[in-house]
């Protein structure tokens, strides 16, 4: 079984209140070296068999149709998962 | 006039929307997200709530529900469609309206009576108002920040498609204080505040919200007389 990994991030010009909340919490735990956080989404799509170019093209289409909203988000990566099929990240 | 109100899994304000239709003199028709047709209604309201749990993005999954294919096709033919709060998010996800709604800039849920200015009285849902009129209706959302790129915002302003604007301070970070917009034709309107919660004296801040529903009913009568 193959797996496609898709990363979606808020567009740079869109305010990311979740990332802002996280960057505010980090120094309270002593992590003082991080000046910014942006929070995105990772999707893992499973397929029967190999992740072929056709599968990746289909996954990219799904990413642009449903998994992201082009007004506020960018699909930054669509790729076959590394390592053995079904293995953990 | 028969006005359909869609119930998605997770809709909250469908009951109040049907009640608002009734108080305005219309006949409310309950529509279900899995319906394959609109049961011949003359207009559609997409109500507030958290359709499909707001999973993925607010309105993103509702947009692909069976009933929405018919709503989108109808809207493109001129069917009056009103999206309130989550319904506004569904309309943006459907690309019937431009832009998107993102988490409030201050990260808190807002629930208050909100002053608005009616910027346009030339939509099917606002014809009973005077342009420039101030109204008060409840506002309650966590993801109500309206965003769009500068060109889109300029176009909305230039074409008179900003329908409602927040007054007395921006409650959620919406660009240019925009609370509601319309499509080019003026049959599709979306807004974050809740007119259906301000339709009866003693319940809510007043009855300003009723005018959206009387507007669309009056528009239908005018076009029936004209036909």
Outline the structure in words:
Helix content of chain A is 27%, strand content 27%. Chain A has a single domain (2-80), classed as Phosphoribosylformylglycinamidine synthase subunit PurS (Mth169, Chain: A, 2-Layer Sandwich), CATH 3.30.1280. Chain A is of the alpha+beta class and 89 residues long. Chain B has 227 residues and is α/β, with parallel strands linked by helices. Chain B has one domain (2-226): Rossmann fold. Chain B has 5 helices and 11 strands. Chain B has helices spanning 14-23, 66-77, 86-93, 150-158, 210-226; strands at residues 2-7, 27-32, 43-46, 81-84, 100-102, 110-118, 134-141, 145-147, 162-166, 178-182, 188-191. In chain B, strands 2-1-3-4-11-10-9-6-7 form a 9-stranded mixed sheet, with helices on both faces. A two-stranded antiparallel ribbon of chain B has the order 5-8. In chain B, helix 1 links the parallel strand 1 (2-7) and strand 2 (27-32). The longest helix of chain B is centred in the C-terminal third of the chain and has 17 residues, at 210-226. The mean pLDDT of chain B is 96. At the A-B interface, helix 1 of A face loops of B.
């Amino acid at each position: 079984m193959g797996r496609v990994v898709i990363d979606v991030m808020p567009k740079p010009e869109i305010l990311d209140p979740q990332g802002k909340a996280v960057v505010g919490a980090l120094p309270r735990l002593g992590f003082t070296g991080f000046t910014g956080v942006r929070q995105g989404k990772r999707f893992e799509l499973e397929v029967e068999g190999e992740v072929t170019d056709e599968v990746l093209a289909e996954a990219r289409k799904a990413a642009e149709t449903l998994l992201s909203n082009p007004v506020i988000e960018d699909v930054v990566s669509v790729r076959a998962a590394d390592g053995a099929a079904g293995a953990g990240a | 006039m028969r006005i359909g109100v869609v119930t998605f899994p997770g809709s909250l304000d469908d009951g109040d929307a049907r009640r608002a239709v009734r108080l305005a003199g219309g006949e409310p028709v309950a529509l279900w997200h899995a319906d394959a047709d609109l049961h011949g209604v003359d207009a559609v309201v997409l109500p507030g709530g958290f359709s499909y749990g707001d999973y993925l993005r607010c309105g993103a999954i509702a947009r692909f529900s069976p009933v929405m294919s018919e709503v989108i096709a109808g809207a493109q033919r001129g069917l009056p469609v009103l999206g309130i709060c989550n319904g506004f998010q569904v309309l943006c996800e459907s690309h019937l309206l431009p832009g998107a709604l993102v988490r409030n800039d201050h990260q808190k849920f807002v629930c208050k009576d909100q002053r608005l200015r009616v910027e346009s009285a030339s939509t099917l849902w606002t014809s009973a108002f005077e342009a420039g009129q101030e109204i008060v209706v409840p506002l309650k959302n966590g993801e109500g920040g309206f965003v769009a790129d500068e060109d889109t915002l300029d176009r909305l302003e230039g074409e008179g498609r900003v329908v409602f604007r927040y007054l007395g301070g921006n409650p959620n970070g919406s660009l240019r204080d925009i609370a509601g917009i319309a499509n080019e034709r003026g049959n599709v309107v979306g807004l974050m505040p809740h007119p259906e919660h301000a339709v009866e004296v003693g319940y809510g801040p007043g009855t300003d919200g009723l005018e959206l529903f009387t507007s669309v009913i009056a528009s239908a009568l005018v076009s029936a007389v004209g036909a």
